[in-house]
Amino acid sequence: MTARILHHADILPPGSVIHLTRATLTTARPKALHDHDFVELFWVQNGTVRHHRPGGIETLKEGALVLLRPGQTHALQGKGEASLVVSVALHPDLIGQLDGRVPDLPFWRAADGPSRADRDMRQLAALNHAANLMDHGPFDTLAAEAFLLPLLADLARARTDLPADAPDWLHRACAAAQDPEVYRVGAAGFVARTGQSHPHAARSLQRWLGLTPTAYINRVRMARAASALTRDSDPLPVIAESVGIANLSHFHKLFRAHHGMTPLQYRQQFQRDVVQPGP
């Protein structure tokens, strides 16, 4: 396929820094890949999509979120009926401003190829709600940032600390591990999300992060527990159960190992002492 180039001056209306398009894809194979001089963010709203890239074809299912920077050529093809994609074009000037302010978020910064994340049903609904709010304009910098920054903040909360070249399935599993429905189950819940055998998932996680599945999930659990200790006043057994640990003694042992103090000491230091300082 020979790539053609799309220019932001032809896509974004005058005075706009962001432009949103919804399109139902045909099942016809694309005749050419295309490049663009702007950043494109798109997600699969419904159905299944074939994502054509110079190196091959990737299948994207509902909730797949992809960001492409200039030089990353691609094309889209519907697979079956009702393959709906929402595409957002971002002006180069807007990207230049955000590049200087957004933290080193792999999804935003990746330059070696399209960035990929997966949105679950709740996250996809939030993304579409934000898109609907933006629909009526004005399509200025404030509106663009109101749409983009909450999305990037949500992606940052799911950072996996994995190198960019770690397997995609491991990236997705580690991101899914931030979900209470996964970390409450423990290592078995994590391994189930990998789609791999337990030995292979364990070897891969050890290679890329130096952790076993149990150690990784416990790290996630203790981070969530620490947040809960400062966010509200639930008793310790409730917090322990909320992160999937029924044994309170085991919870205390894990928490001290991760944070260097007991849960009550942590709550004292980071909740009460902040709101009600001593003399």
Structure at a glance:
The chain is α+β, with helices and mostly antiparallel strands and 279 residues long.
Description:
- It is a single chain.
- The protein is globular.
- By secondary structure, it is α+β, with helices and mostly antiparallel strands.
- Helix content is 47%, strand content 22%.
- Strand 4 (39-53) and strand 5 (56-61) form a beta hairpin.
- The mean pLDDT is 90.
- 29% of the residues are buried.
- The strands form two sheets. Strands 2, 4, 5, 6, 7 and 8 form a six-stranded antiparallel sheet that branches. The chain has a two-stranded parallel ribbon with strand order 1-3.
- It has two domains: 4-157, Sandwich (Jelly Rolls), CATH 2.60.120; 168-275, Homeodomain-like (Arc Repressor Mutant, subunit A).
Compute the number of helices: 13
Shape by Cα distribution? globular
Q: Stretches where pLDDT falls below 50 for ≥5 residues? A: none
Largest sheet: 6 strands, antiparallel
Q: Which CATH architecture of the largest domain? A: Sandwich
Q: Could you tell me the mean pLDDT?
A: 90
The CA-CA distance between the termini, in Å, is 72 Å
Q: How much helicity do the residues have?
A: 40-55%
CATH class annotation of the largest domain: Mainly Beta
Name the structural class. Answer: alpha+beta
Cα radius of gyration in angstroms: 22 Å
CATH topology of the largest domain: Jelly Rolls
Number of strands: 8
* Residue fraction in strands: 15-25%
Along the chain, the helix and strand elements come as EHEEEEEEHHEHHHHHHHHHH
Q: List the domain count as a whole number.
A: 2
